[in-house]
Amino acid sequence: MIKIRNLWKKYDKTQVMEGLDLDIQTGETIVILGRSGVGKSVLLKHIIGISKPDAGSIHVNDDCITDLSGAELYQAVHQMGMLFQGAALFDSMNVEENTAFYLTEHGDPKTGKPYSKKELDELVAHALEMVGLAGTQKKMPSELSGGMRKRAGLARLIVYRPSILLYDEPTTGLDPITALHINELIVKTQKELKATSIVVTHDIFSALYVGDRLALIDGGKIVCIGDPDTFLKFDHPIIEFLRKTLLQDPRSFRKEADGKSK
Amino acid sequence: MELSPPIKQKTQIFLEAVEKKGSFLVAIGEYMQLIIAVALATIRCPPSFRLIRNQLYDIGVSSLPVVAITGFSTGLVLAAQSFYQLSDKGLASVTGIMVAKAMITELGPVLTAFMVTGRVGAAMCAELGTMRVTEQIDALQTMAINPHRYLIAPRFIAGTFMMPLLTVFSIVMGIFGGYLISVFFFSMSPSAYFDPMPEHITLFDLFTGIAKSYVFGAFIMTISCYKGLSTSGGAAGVGRATTNCVVVAYCCILLSNFFLTIALNVIRDKISLFL
Question: Which of A28, A142, B20, B219 is buried deepest, with most CB atoms within 10 A?
Fold first, then answer.
């Protein structure tokens, strides 16, 4: 279970988080929604220990991530994995090396024993097959499309089977069909690893597809949270807009805007 | 109370100056923090030899051609200038000593450091900067890899190890360049070029050159890595960080060269008093 309590964070003169509280149950997929710049990605970086809050705490199972540093933090981070918005594949390594990176550096996640070349090849091939990238082992990240990069990033994540998966805008910048494929992969991965998943997105379709619960950040706090049906019933301007985008023909927004400008 | 525009403007300038000074001190603090973090990470869990070997090749072997050209051409020019300036005073025989002394104590270490900054430091800063802005360094951390141990320590170890070797290579190339022009262009005899060297070039001179190259190597590696890791602002930020890295490294090399020259000569004088 992940417990976030009274999280505060300020960047330069912008207060991004203002006492954010959130509980995430083990094994659930929670989707964090919100406008650009409200601190969704920042929240993920705090959970995985890349950023430190100005105040507040984050407990991941028995570890207080916000209190840990150095080797203890890295030890706690082993149970987590994150898919970055741009996939963050290592440019100097091919897909195979990228996917095998964690296993090459740490060995078996349970025993720490180094893998043989054959074992590594098998694990990498399985992970790549799972994300539909079989046969791309020798390709460099620069040779991959946006969707392929995201899938390679996901393969790099699932190969070491973390129990907590963080996704930072997994479908942003992808065409609708590839985005749907990524959503399917998130659900498939969650089922196979029985992991806790936290997905940050702007995409309401993706949020409803993958999420067990949806949460909305506004003004540095979680303002609405609940299962998809409950979430869509909240009385909040952003949720009202999301409801409209789901039900209304997008051309009606254009007509509305044209009407206002007249 | 409303301030008049000129006072307001001056106050603004003063506040900006204070802020700039503050950010400079913050940068110094962060730089020192990085050095300590890298040292601790290296002591606690040394980086794998594979990573150090790759950097040894990138920093050392790949820099050999540029260092050779720099050293060789400097030796050529130095010998030619010395010969032209000194031959009419009957001092042409000191050409070899001039070249060797200048190359060993000053030009070898400084020019090699400049070349390594331009070739290796800038590339290192750009690479780390790109990794920073594309979240590759964050990705390392999410996979429980300490970037200080994985990225910085191998570069620092390889850089400080390779700099003295590159400097010695540059010195040898410089003396060789000086020899070629003195013997084949100015018709000096090889013995006139080499024979006075053992008498005038001391082991302390060699120590001076090597000590300087260690310090320069440490500066180049730490500044490049610090600037790379603190990059922000996308592609433009990477460009800015790389330019800053080269400028700061050059300044540090030149300033530290002055202080090292003074300090090492004082030490030599003290030692010679005891001997």
Answer: B219
pLDDT (tens place) for every residue of chain A, 262 residues total: 899 999 999 987 888 899 999 999 999 999 999 988 888 999 999 999 999 999 999 999 888 888 888 888 888 888 899 999 988 999 999 999 999 999 999 988 778 788 999 999 999 999 999 888 888 999 999 999 988 999 999 999 989 889 999 999 988 888 888 888 889 989 988 888 889 999 999 888 889 999 999 999 998 899 999 999 999 888 888 888 888 877 777 677 677 777 776 6
Q: Which residues of B202-223 are buried (b: 16+ CB within 10 A; e: fewer)?
A: eebbeebbbbbbebbbbbbbbb
Find the residue in B nearest to A44 (Cα): B142
For A106, counting Cβ atoms within 10 Å of its Cβ (0-12 exposed, 13-18 middle, 19+ buried), the class is middle
Residues of chain A found within 8 Å of residue B145, distances taken between Cβ atoms: 74, 105
Q: Is B144 on the interface with A (CB under 8 A)?
A: yes
Q: Identify the CA nearest to B159 among candidates B124, B209, B207.
A: B124
Domains identified in chain A and CATH numbers:
1-79+164-227 (3.40.50.300), 88-161 (no CATH)
A80 with B145: Cβ contact below 8 A: no
What value of ipTM does the predicted structure carry? Answer: 0.88
Edge-to-edge strands of the sheet including A55-60? A14-24, A2-11, A55-60, A63-64
The pTM assigned to this predicted structure is 0.86
Domain residue ranges of chain B, discontinuous segments joined by +:
27-274
Residue B45 phi, psi (nearest 5): -150, 90
- In chain B, the residue whose alpha carbon lies closest to the alpha carbon of A105 is B145
Q: Which of A173, A157, A155 shows the shortest CA–CA distance to A165?
A: A157
List the single residue in B130, B144, B146 with the smallest CB-CB distance to A78.
B144
Q: Which of A71, A84, A89 lies closest to B138 in CB terms?
A: A84
Q: Nearest CA of chain B to the CA of A86: how many Å?
A: 7
Q: What is the separation, in whole angstroms, between the first and last Cα of chain B?
A: 72
Whether residue A119 contacts residue A146, with contact meaning beta carbons closer than 8 Å, is answered with no
